[in-house]
Amino acid sequence: MKTEDRSGAAASGTAASKTVDRQERFDLIRGRVGLALGPVGFALVLLTALGLPWEQRALAAVLVLVIVWWVTEAIPLAATALLGIVLCVFLGVADEDTVFGAFGNDTIFTFLGGFVIARSMTVHGLDRRLALRVLSVGGVVRSPARTVVAFGAMAMCISAFISNTATVAMLFPIGIGIVRAVSAISTDKGGQDLHGSRWSTALMLMIAYGASIGGLLTPIGAPHQLIGRDLVEEQTGKTINFVEWVLLFAPIVLVMFAALCVVLLRLNRPEVSELRGAEAYLAEQRAEFGSFSRGEANTCVGFAVAVVLWTAPGIGSLVLGEEHDFVVLMHEHLTEGVAAILAATVLFLLPLDRGDATGRRAPTLTWAEAVKIDWGVILLFGAGTVIGSLSSETGLADTLGTSLADHLGVSSLVSVTILAAVAGLVISETTSNTASAGIVVPIVVPIAMAVDVNPLIPGLVATAAAGYGFMLPVSTPGNAIVYGSGMVPMTKMIRSGFVFDLIGVTILVAGTLLMAQVVGI
Question: What is the dihedral of CA 94, 100, 101, 106, to 10 degrees?
């Protein structure tokens, strides 16, 4: 390796180390402040909200504590979630059967099945193989602009079925490898080191932002969407199935992606017109995979089963009608949770080989591999469901909705939807997407109901906006990952994120209001 290349890599590593240190200091201060503010807010509500019935007052106090600790991440989000539901029982908001029964929710099993399928993709390298294959098509990586767009398109499509964080974690090292390969050749020929270039910044941001907007394509694309959708359904009594979700948000996501490409390439215009060495790097990476493995093939089968079962009830409704006996049967018995578990089970049934001398056959996915999923998200979802349902049952949601609607002066579907989008966006900039959805949706839906407008639209917009957060490294894990590369200066992330926040919220609000009429929500 040339001296210039080593120094460039060292500089990049030093910058990444500094960004990590700043991030850790910020998180430490935020956590300490939140750790103190949470109990203070809890006590103040209990002592001062004397005009509310005890169940509403106690639940409001729990809600304040949970929100403060979720926003500041004073303790792990899942631990806060468990404390919140335990306090609901302890303070007499509801009995233990009502509270703990939320973990029997169908969406819990949708999480489990989806996480297991995504885990199998990672274990067998199917996701990475697909990414490398797409980048190798038609000389895509010879062009800086096409490379950025291609990474964004992959991030968008993959995150529709795998968590945004996992998508970024998978594409990030491929992007880093391409930047290093191109930079090495460029510096050898006396050209520019592209580690800290505008092009590398655009590439890193595209990976993170593309995954964030792509997760919106399907309800299983991001955990916060299943949480938000369930909270909306719990409070409104109306359901949004897989097909309806895709029909509603797919056009919005495509428009957002086109806008994202324009924003990132305009604000971070590539310095070079050609990327030399990128194709050779991809060829080396693809050669390491070899032929398509049995594990990859089996994972494709499991994934296909999931998609067919998830979409069957919705497609049946469109083709045969909602009242057809078979369609009614599917809606009652082939729920998304049932479909997810059936598809995940396929991975434990399909073997990788013919077996050893004893006849034992290794499954596509072992239980030891499967359990390495994010159980914390499941606990967080259960807590969000409990708090959302109890808000309705105790009357707290109605009280909050009426009060906030009067104070904020919102009275139309458009104004409530804009409020939902802005609230979801602002909170998601400083806390996790799952926590943002759990905070915003239970507040926005009652406001919509208080002013007598369709609560589904602002509820779904709040859920979608909770997955935004493009300005800061703390906004999403994907942002933090690419920021840690040392290729994304804070000023560029803030500038690019701010511009896309404004454009994205506009597209989200206008698009949802329009598509809701088309889909009939």
Answer: 130
